[in-house]
Amino acid sequence: MAMQEMDEQGFGSDTPSGARRVSGVSSSRRVDRQTGRAGFGAQFRLRFSRSVMPRTQKGRIAGAVALFASLGLLAGAGYEGQHFLLHDERFVVPGSSAIQIEGNSHLTRAQLLSVFGEDVDRNIFTVSLAQRRTELERLPWVEHATVMRLLPDRLRVSIVERTPVAFVRQGSKIGLVDRTGVLLDMDDDSETASKGAPVQYSFPVVTGVSEDDPASVRSARMKIYLKFASDLDSSKENISSKLSEVDLSNPEDVKALIPDHGTEILVHFGDSDYLDRYRKFEAQLPQWHTQYPKLASADMRYDRQVVLEMQAGASVPTNNTQTAEASDPTPAPIKHAAPRPAAKKTAAPERGRPHTKLAAMGQPHFPDESAPTGKHVISSKPARQ
Predict the structure, then answer these.
(1) Residue 319: how many CB atoms within 10 A of its CB?
(2) Rounded CA separation 99/121 (Å)
């Protein structure tokens, strides 16, 4: 038997003579009386009388037996309930049609159902939802998956697919890559393609990202690409869509192929100031077309000079004048760098021909290129003869 006792605090000497006086006055109750509010500071205590427990040994034994009997009944009911859920035919997945799939556009239903091949004609409570989710997220196109039970006999699968941000060259094939560097195949039998509405993408082709690279390397290089594309598009002109290919093999020198009048020009952007360097290239390109019709690449990494490379077999013009910076009021004399033989990267210039020494910068370094057929160095700071 439980007895309830309430300690009301704060009555003091004002308690009527017929009322019970309770000791232990607290300040919280006095505040209540002063403010005239209800006594929320009252404390409630539950005390159990010893008369609840049996006093005799036989009574204690009987109580223990009753307790164990109650626990046994509960365990038996739980077992029967579990047996019912695991063996009743109403909780068996009848077929693949009982598996609902939503959110997929690149992966086909058949590709996703292959994960649930063991679950058909199986009790729905024996399907490990966590394991099926893990198996789904191992598929390259799946970024996140959710698997739920719909009683009595259905499963619901919700897929969030990865979003590609660029094409990627994988050997002789062209695939896709997302922002984290996960390589994705382009399946012709995708869900949308089968409905007559294939997904169309307009991306540059990224090189320097290979399936042989660790995931951390691919992720780091894609961060560089996203920064590069974001900087170019910060002017709201969608400049990145004009690029044909972006080479990420050297993180310190992002290179891009830019289509131009039926050919492509390789532009070195370095590792910063991408938009500013593109603007300089764009501004000088019309004049370069006139003076260097066989232009193959432009190195825009240096502040005071531009290094132009001609196409294979083309010679460097020798009768032109050019300034390095459109803003430089003092035209600089043209200095030609002689072609370097393929076997030697530091060959001396041809005798009798002028050449340029890049003051305080050293000779430009081209780590990933074969020896050029001819380079033209445009500098706003004339070299000492």
Answers:
(1) 6
(2) 12
Cβ-proximal residues to 256 (8 Å cutoff; 6+ apart), any chain: 204, 243, 244, 245, 246, 247, 266, 267, 269
- Residue 244's Cβ-side half-sphere holds a number of Cα atoms within 13 Å equal to 10
With a CB cutoff of 8 Å and minimum separation 6, the contacts of 122 are 92, 93
Residue 371 amino acid letter: A
How many other CB atoms sit within 10 Å of the CB of residue 165?
19
Question: Residue 51's pLDDT is what?
Answer: 56
Strand order in the sheet with 142-150: 99-102, 154-161, 142-150
Number of CB atoms found within 10 A of residue 224's CB? 17
Which DSSP helix (H) or strand (E) runs through 43?
strand 43-48
Q: Is the pLDDT of residue 351 over 70?
A: no
- Written as six digits, the tokens of 57 are 């040994």
Pairwise CA distance, residues 95 & 121, whole Å: 6
H helices then E strands: how many in the chain?
Answer: 7, 16
Alpha carbons 318 and 25: distance in angstroms, whole number: 106
Both tokens assigned to 255: 């290179």
Question: Using only C-alpha atoms, what is the Rg of the chain?
Answer: 40
Reply yes or no on whether the pLDDT at 325 is more than 50. Answer: no
The closest of 97, 102, 103 to 116, measured between CA atoms, is 97
Which letter, b or e, does each residue of 83-120 get, where b requires 16 or more Cβ atoms within 10 Å of its Cβ? eebeeeeebbbeeeebbebeebebbbeebbeebbeebe
Tokens of 192: 């949308």
Beta bridge partners of 264: 259
C-alpha 202/C-alpha 193 separation (Å) is 17
- The C-alpha atoms of residue 203 and residue 240 are separated, in whole angstroms, by 8
Residues with Cβ within 8 Å of residue 263, at least 6 apart in sequence:
none
**3-state SS, residue 11:** coil
Dist. CA 210–CA 212, nearest whole Å = 5
CA dist 207 and 323 (Å) reads 33
CA distance 219 to 126: 37
In sequence order, what DSSP letters do the residues of 284-317 get, joined into one string?
HHHHHHHH-TTEEEEE---SSEEEEEEPTTPPPP
Alpha carbons 376 and 309: distance in angstroms, whole number = 6
83-95 pLDDT per residue, tens: 566 768 888 999 9
